[in-house]
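Notes to self, NAD-dependent epimerase/dehydratase family protein:
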Amino acid sequence: MKIILLGCGYLGYNLASLLSQKAETEIIGLPSPYTPLCSNFKEINAFSAKDLDQVDFEDVVVIDTISLLANNARSEDEEKTLRGVEEKYEFLLCQLKQRGARLFIFMSSGGTVYGNAAEPICEDAPLHPITLYARSKTRCEQVIRQSGLPYLILRLANPYGGHQTTDKKQGVIPILIEKALSHEAFEMWASPHSSRDYIYIEDFAQAIQLLLDHQIQNEIVNVASQTATSLTEILDEVQEKTGQAIEIRHVNSEVPVVDQIVLNIEKLKRLTGFTIQTTIQEGIVKEIKRIKKEQGGIRK
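result:
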């Protein structure tokens, strides 16, 4: 099996590395801080037919990790922005279908498309996207389902862990750890009592591999830990494990913020037998070790 990942950011780089244990992987996309680390990167604009001509997609699994909008994106004309995203994906999916791709895996946002959910929420629940970013994900889901190309839509929780560049961190956990170790203040954009569902990057890669092994397609699947963890709990855990207090500065968000979300993963378990291997406590310990090692290397 060959897997081509679209986008060489945090997810693309780490998934390519983890999935390469069982498949040939290649990353295509635009240059990023991660591209110098990749031996299998090709500079390709995924939304250019001329560039796509340089890639053989026949019988390939395509994993899309591109995000056309940031999670704090705003627009004076939201409909125009959303239509622009739709058109890009209509083009891409048509190209992949014509070129014989086997399967298209899309990273949707389980943390935002449902809105607030205090109890584990299932894939068939009504969607309540409250930000432009979340609405872009739901619109892409519609385009994908109508494309005629075999697909998997993964409604992903908050991933963390794995290699990250020093200038941009993925999510609150590594940022809190770095602030603790460097004795810097942390800007908190949400309520300390707000809760999220976090999944360690190796567990996420395992879920994808299991879905591929079981040849699952044309499904929408939550990928998460099914455990809600509040910002306060993460803050306490990081402070305890690092032995450092963190100064908190509360900042108002410019976009609406989901207060509580936890995803139900019974469908993923039923389809694949998936189980979480890394608890949030274990993941935080792994992140502290990784970041300390990286900081030690930088100081040298």
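- The first strand starts at residue 2 and ends at 6.
- The first helix runs from residue 10 to 19.
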